[in-house]
Amino acid sequence: MCGPDHNKDPNFLITILISIAKDLILLGSFPTVRFNTKQTKIGRNPNQIIQTKTCRLGPTIYVDGDNSSWVSPSGYFAFGFKPVADKNLFLLAIWFDKVPEKTIVWSAHKGNLVLYGSKVELKSSGQLVLSNNQGQEIWTAQVTNGSATSADILDTGNLVLWNSNSGITWQSFDHSTDTILPSQILDMGTTLSSRETETNYSSGKFELRFQTDGNLVLYTTNLLTNYLYNAYWSSSTAGTNSQMIFNQSGYIYLRQTNGSVHNLTLGNIVSTRDFYHRATLDFDGVFRQYIYPKNGSSNRNWAGESWSIEWSVPSDICWAITDSFGSGACGFNSYCRLDDTLRPSCFCPPNYSYFDSSNPFKGCKPDFVPQSCEPAGSWEEPRPQFRMTELPNTNWPMSDSERYNPINEDQCRELCLDDCFCAVAIFTGVDCFKKKLPLSNGRIERTTKALIKVPQGNSTSQFPLPSGSNRGKSDRGTLIIIFSTLLGSSVFLNLVFLVTILLAVFFQYQKKLLKHQPEQAPPEQNFLGMHLRSFTYKELEEATDGFKQELGSGAFGTVYKGVLTSSTGNFIAVKKLEKFVEEGDKEFKAEITAIGRIHHKNLVQLLGFCYEGSQRLLVYEFMSNGSLASFLFGSSRPSWNQRTQIAFGVARGLTYLHDECGNQIIHCDIKPQNILLDCNFTARISDFGLAKLMQADQTRTNTGLRGTKGYVAPEWFRNMSITTKVDVYSFGVLLLEIICCRKNVEVGLDDIENAILTYWAYDCYRERKLNLLVDDDEEAQSNARRLERFVMIAIWCIQEEPSLRPSMKKVTQMLEGAVEVSVPPDPSSFISSIG
After folding, report:
1. Helix, coil or strand: residue 405
2. What is the number of alpha carbons within 13 Å of residue 544 lying toward its C-beta?
3. Residues spanned by the domain of 279
4. In 3D, which of 376, 597, 608 has the Cα closest to residue 508?
5. CA atoms of 309 and 288, how far apart (whole Å)
6. Residue 163 DSSP symbol
7. Are residues 640 and 686 in the same domain?
8. Residues 264-285: pLDDT tens digits?
9. What is this structure's pTM?
10. Hey, which residues are catalytic here?
11. How many domains would you assign to the chain?
12. Which of 536, 763, 768, 808 has the fewest CB atoms within 10 Å, counting from its CB?
């Protein structure tokens, strides 16, 4: 969210400090509630002294219209049965009773509805019990600290059960659903769950977790198993015994035991004296703080029709969620767009409609039979013809099946039309991405164009979806009638009919053969296997102007810049391989085809190859911003945000190579020179898969040393198996270089101990002097928590014992804040202890 830097506004800071001071006073004195002439402590909840209405043992709330709720003393809140959606369906809930919308802030029984005749009762057993209209007990407030003898609904919106000693046995503030209120405190381990929809109070697919490591994180979940997908927002905080506080002044912040405070509320907040406040994880996945004027009073212009949003995170939910699992902010096959109020709306592509018209967030389905991959039989219906229709500025960044570069739009259309698995093609101007159903993470993206495969004609009814089994029976009946008629006619007419069919099939077959003749295809589509192009040496020699402009060289060979003049004129990078394993034509092409199948946004894409005589060359897409080495170690320091995004990208790319592509790939040479940056400065790993071409076996023991000095894992020097952990070690060194913007070995430093980056970084971490690693980098120093987390992750990665290093998948989760980072040991301590 864009706006002024309130953390540097002195008035804003003074306001926060005053509100925190009030909280500390209240928390230290344990505020009380007057309870039938007794002073009763409310524990750690900072409620003011309030005159409450007490419901003694026995009172029951029925769904009868007259006695359906208890109201707090001031009338701000009510607890009881609230009609939802249908006058015969009710939710046991707490709501703002003076707000016209009667906004619900808490619900029981997992948001499930009950029918007329249900009741909630404080029983003689000391339990608050919800019973349905059949008298069955379906929900119970699990009390502690003795049985409950009375209950209160407080003016804070907190439902409290008391024991005979005026102690709390249960309170709704400890069992939040999707909303928190002023005076409420959340401990680590607390979770808020969104609703399924705006009017369905069952748990939805979004969660806000205040993790045990002190980090506040937003996740999407798999509702069936509650499996957490990757985080899409986090506070990037850490600490023990932290608390999330929504104070009485209306500010939300995280406070740690050392007294440090991380503000979540943005800007100055209006007084809780004049406005109702709430913070809700909404059904669309956004955490928002809302206000509403009390008694219609307001010191500013107010529309008055609804709650006003004070702040929210993330600022753009459509772009925040990019997980390869799940549907994204909207459902499958739909795309997300922010409306004028910055709320997400979900839309269907052309010839698709909402799966559930009452819930646009549930996704879209095609209004036609998708293209079949089965060959058409002579007695089947004519197969629908398809065309590509445009949807500008739209993309589904996941669901890729293939990628082509360089290519033009017409070729992109044809490639999708000719592929029965392709439902959508995304064209970027130079790239074409084939997409398969279901589509996920759809969003507005200004630099792309979506080409949607739909049936010919404007009407979707031309090729409607089958309505059921009657369709097949009708088809078979029609065929039987036609066949019977043919048998009943003359033999001569039958022969003429059959000859006509055979001639039509013959000419159609010839037409297809001519269309798909290899020599008539343009050279750019003369691909092998996964559409890799097979170049001649002469073509690449001409493309590189005689291998004139060298881009760099490494363990696998030298790279030259070139341009494909025969196609769109796009630049390419041509690598001449050296010291490769002598293999036959079949084996070489098999390995190259395997590399060509690998597609990920953080990997450099292989476009083609040359296998001619003793020449072995690979053709890659050209990365316009060069290598990470020149970016990090140049004359100017890249921004902290750019560096962290690059670290995320490299980690995700390695995770894909290790765990997610068809065959596990160990890179064996991760270093800044092998991380390239595209036009958007996105990190792209190069040279993956080449280690196997250079040596016969990259995983056995006693294999030849590979990699670059300073990035090589210790097991290369020992009689140990080489696993993916060698890449983890190299990534740890690379991560420290990204953090510090310096090479892993600096020759000529006055302090010899600081010359080796890995040793110096651990010393700085141990001595709590991390600021030395980012000297003169104010942006990095101001983000001390993320800096510390990154350094700790790097130290885990460079552990000399491979088994102590995390997997790249876990490294990625730790970088993103989804997994707690424990204190790392001295990298060489394990080896020293057994040496």
Report:
1. coil
2. 26
3. 177-295+303-315
4. 376
5. 7
6. -
7. yes
8. 887 788 889 889 999 999 999 9
9. 0.55
10. 669
11. 3
12. 768
